[in-house]
Amino acid sequence: MKKTLLLLPVLALGACTAPGDPLHRAYRGEAGALVDGGNFGNATMNNAMVMTGERSYVFDMSNRFANEVPTTVNFAFNSDVLDIGARDTLNEQAAWIRQFPEVRFKVYGHTDAVGSPGYNKNLGLRRARAVVAYLASRGISTSRLEAVVSFGETQPLIVTQGRERRNRRTVTEVSGFVKSHPMVLDGKYAEVIYREYVASATTESGWKATGTGE
C-alpha cells in the first residue's frame, strides 16, 4: 500500500507532462538544468537602486519630463524624416534635457502595422536614431542618449491594421543617471530637481533674494 501511494505522484507527473515540457525537464533533469530566462540579477539591481534612491529619482524625473515637455514625435508613412513639427518638439526636449546633465534618456521607435514585422522593427529603430541625431545636433551629448531596439508595430496607440499616424512615433523617456552621478546620490537630489528655481532666486547683483525687501 505504501509503495502505491509513493508512486502516485510519479505516475501523475508522467501522465500530465510530455518529455519536452519544462516541468518534465525540471523533474527528470539535474538541478539547475532550466536556463534562466534573462531576468537573473534584476532583483538585486532593483534593491540596489531602491537603497541608493536612484529608482525613485528616475521615476520622479520621468514624471517631470513627461509633464513639462511633449515626449512624442510623429512621422509620415514609411519615413524616418523629421518634419517641422517633430523638430519643434525636439527643440523643447533638448532645452529641457540641457538643464539636467546628470540624466540619461532612451528613445523608443514605433511604426504602424503596415508592412512586415522585420521591416517595421528596422524602420522604428531608424526613427529613434534620427531623434538621437537631432538632439545631439542641439548640444546633447550622445553618451546620454540611446536609440533602443525598436518596438516596431508591437505597441500601437491605436489598434488598427491600416495607416495610423499616431502609431508612427518615437517616445523619449528618462532612463537613469550618468554613471550614478554623485550629485544625485550624495544627498543633493533636490539641487538637481529644483535647479532652475534656485537660480531664479538669485538677483543680477549676485545676492540671493531674502524675501524681506532688503
Automatic annotation (TrEMBL):
Pfam families per record: OmpA (PF00691)
Protein name, as recorded: OmpA-like domain-containing protein
Cell compartments where the protein resides: Cell outer membrane
Domain OmpA-like: 62-178
InterPro entries linked: Bact_OuterMem_StrucFunc, OMP_bac, OmpA-like, OmpA-like_sf
Alphabetized UniProt keyword annotations: Cell outer membrane, Membrane
UniProt GO cellular component terms: cell outer membrane
Recorded superkingdom: Bacteria
Primary localisation category: membrane
